[in-house]
Amino acid sequence: MSKLQDVLKSIKPVDESRTTQIQERLDNLTKPPGSLGRLEELAKRYCLITGTGKPRIRNKIIFTCAGDHGVAEEGVSAFPKEVTPQMVYNFLRDGAGVNVLAKHYGARVIVVDAGVDHDFEPMEGLEIRKVGRGTRNMTRGPAMTREEAERAVLVGVEMVEKYRDGLDIIGTGDMGIGNTTPSSAIVSVITGTDPELVTGRGTGIDDHSLKGKVAIIKKAIAVNEPDARDPLDVLAKVGGYEIAAIAGLVLGAALHKIPVVVDGFISTAGALIAAEMNPLVKGYIIAAHQSVEIGHRKMLEHLEQIPLLDLHLRLGEGTGAAIGISLVEAGVKILTEMATFADAGVSEKEEEKVKQ
C-alpha cells in the first residue's frame, strides 16, 4: 500500500457524538438561542473536529503553496510566469496581502515550493519541496505524471505532519501564474460542467483572452481525456503542483483532526481533488469565502460547503483563509469566554425556566 493510500484509508469521519452537549452550552450563553448565527456553528464544528470541549486557537498557519504551469505559455494570464518566484520572495519579505492579513490575525505564513521553476536558497518560512520545475503544457499532454501528482499531494500531507504538534487550525493559499486555468479544468471535469460556465478572468484578462482561455481548457480536456472517476488522473492530466499540495493539506488536516480553512478558487480546486479521493474530508473543511471566479460556486456546491463571506476577493495567496480563520476564532471565543445565564445572574426566557 502506498503512503497516499494509507492516508486515505486512515481518515475517520468527524465524531458528532458531542453535538448535543456543545449545543446546550451555546444555548445557555447570555443571548437568545442561535442569535450569533454562523459563529455558533463554527464554534460547534471546531469542537467536533478537534474533539475538545475547551478549545483555544493560538497556533495558526497559512500554507501558501506555489507552483508554475506550462500552460502559461498559451497566454492564459495577464502576468508572465516570472511573477511566481517574485511573489514567493514577496511572501518571504512579509510584503504580500496574505502577510498583512495573517499578521493582523496572528497567523504564520509558510510558503511551500511544490513546483516553481526557480531555485530558491533555504530561507525561514520557506519549505522547498519541489516535485518539478513547473508542470508541462497540458494542451499537449498530461501536466504531470501520475507519480508526480501523487508526490505533490504528499507534499501537503507532510507539511501537516511536520507542523501539527500544537497546531490549532490551518489555512490554505496558492501562488502560480496561470493556475486558474487548471483549476477551471478540474472543476469542469469533476462536475461535468462545460468549461465556459466555470472559467473566469483570473488575473484580469480581457474578453478575447477569456475566449482563448476557454478554448485552451477544452483542448486540454480533449487531448488528455481525464477520468472524472479517478481524481488523481484528473490532477495529473490537467492540474498543478501547488493544487496537488493543497489537496494534500486538506487530507493531512482531516487525518490529524485539524480544521482547514480553504481559501478561494485555486485552493478549492485542491479541496475538490481531496474530497473526490475521500469524501470524509468535507467534514473538516471550512470554506472561507465565495470568490468572484465563476467556477467557484460550482466547486463549493459540489463540496456541500456554504462560504463564510462574499467580499469579491480574487487574489488567492490565502488572504480569504486568514479572514476565515479569524471568524472561526471569534466563534470559539464566544463559546469559551461568554458568560452563561447562571454565571451572569441574568434571567432566562420564561419557557426556559419552565423546562427546568
Profile the largest sheet.
6 strands, parallel
Looking across the biggest beta sheet, what order are the strands in?
Answer: 3-2-1-4-5-6
CATH architecture of the largest domain: 3-Layer(aba) Sandwich
Can you count the beta strands? 6
**Helical proportion, percent range:** 40-55%
Broad CATH class of the largest domain: Alpha Beta
How many domain regions?
A: 2
Task: Enter the CATH topology name of the largest domain.
Answer: Rossmann fold
Order of helices and strands: HHHEHHEEHEHHHHEHEHHHH
Distance between the termini: 55 Å
Describe this entry's structure for a reader:
The chain has two domains: 3-55 and 335-355, Nicotinate-nucleotide-dimethylbenzimidazole phosphoribosyltransferase (CobT), small domain (5,6-Dimethylbenzimidazole Phosphoribosyltransferase, Chain: A, domain 1, Orthogonal Bundle); 60-329, Rossmann fold, CATH 3.40.50.10210. The chain is α/β, with parallel strands linked by helices. Helix 6 (146-163) crosses helix 10, helix 7 packs across helix 12 (294-303) and helix 10 packs across helix 11 (265-277). The chain contains 15 helices and six strands. Strands 3-2-1-4-5-6 form a six-stranded parallel sheet, with helices on both faces. The radius of gyration is 21 Å and the shape is globular.
